[in-house]
Amino acid sequence: MTATTHEFKNHDLVNDISKPGVLFEKRPAHLPDGTVVPGLFNAWITLNNPSQYNSYTTDMVKGVILALRAASNARDVNCVVFTGAGDKAFCTGGNTKEYAEYYSGQPQEYRQYMRLFNDMVSAILVCDKPVICRVNGMRIGGGQEIGMACDFSVAQDLARFGQAGPKHGSAPIGGATDFLPLMAGAERAMAACVLCEPFSAHKANWMGILTSLVPALKVDGKFVANPLVHTQEMVDEYGCFAYGEPKTGDALKAAKALMARGTVDLSLLDAKVEELCAKMLLTFPDCTTKTVEELRKPKLQAWNNNKENSRAWLALNMMTEARAGFIAFNEGTKENREADFVLLRQKLAAGESWIGPLHDSIQPRNKGKA
Questions:
Q1: In the predicted model, what is the mean pLDDT of residues 302-317?
Q2: Does residue 250 belong to any structural domain of this protein?
Q3: Domain total for the chain?
Q4: Could you give the CA distance from residue 159 to residue 304 in angstroms, rounded to a whole number?
Q5: Which residues form the domain of 347?
Q6: Which H/E stretch holds residue 37?
Q7: What pTM does this model have?
Q8: Pair (143, 107) in one structural domain
Q9: Residues 87 and 166 in one domain
Q10: Which of 318, 286, 341 lies closest to 99 in space, CA to CA?
Q11: Residue 40: pLDDT above 60?
C-alpha cells in the first residue's frame, strides 16, 4: 500500500491561543523506559502567576479554555498536564485582587466572568485527552475545584488542599459541592466545604482525591516525607487515626527544624507525572478516551445540573458577602484577611441592612472600633 498524506482541517477556535498568565507547550512523550517517542507529545498547560499563587485572572481563564481546546484537538497529543508555576501553588482560585477591585458590587459583570469560569471547568470535563493535575503546591478554593475536575491528580506531599468559600464571602459551588461528595463522601465533603480548614496532601490521598503522592522535601541529599504531618496511621489521644493531620508541640518544632534544613525538589513529582503519561501512551487511544468519558459522567452530570443556578447566585452574592469577603482579603493585613463574622451575624440578627455602613464595619481594618 502507498502511504497517503492527509491535509487536516483546523478545528481550533482561534489561531493564537496565547493569553497572559497561561503557558502552553507540547513536550515529547516518553515510553516507560524513558525513550522519547518521535512525533507524539504531552500538552502542558501552566498557570503562570506565581507572585499571586497562580490565582487565575479573567484573561487566564480564557487562556486555559483555549489551551484545553487546542490540546483536545491536537492529533499528536497523548495527555494533558495541568499545573502551576513554581513550587508554592498549583492554584489558589480566582484572583482576589481582581475580584475586590473590579467585580465586587458588579453582579452583572461577575455573572459574565462566571460564564468563563464555568466554561473552563467544562473544558476540563470534556477534553478529548486525559487530564492530569500536577499538584506542585497549594490547591485551594477555585484551584481545588479545577483540580478535582481533572481525571488524575499527582501531588507533591508538601501541598495543601481545601476550600475557602464561607470564610471569604462565597460558596464552593464552582465544582467542590459537585465533585467532593462523589470523590470523598458526603461527610468529608461537608467538613471540607463548610469549615474551610486546609488539609495536607497526605490527608487528601487518604480521602481518595489523589492518584499518586510523592515527597518533595530533600534533606542531606535524601527525600523525606512531609515532616509537618503524621505520615503513618497513628492513634491520637481520642483513639482516632491521625494520618495526615498536623503535628503539634515538640513534634511540630522538630518538624519545622527539619524543614528549615531541606530544599524543595519536584523531580519525583515530574517523574511520577511522566510515568502516568507513559502508561496511557501504551493503550488504544479511542478506547482510553471512551473509558475516561464514561468515568467522568457522575462529575459531569452533577456539574451540569448545578452550574447555571450557581452562576446566578454567585453573581448576586457580589452585592453582599462576596463583596465584603473579597475586599477584606485584598485589603486586610497578612495576619487578618477575614471579615468580623460575629459582628456581621449580630447586625443581621438586629435587622441592619447591607445597604448602609454594615459592610465597612465588619472589615478587618475596623475591628475594635465602635
A1: 96
A2: no
A3: 2
A4: 29
A5: 332-366
A6: strand 36-47
A7: 0.93
A8: yes
A9: yes
A10: 318
A11: yes
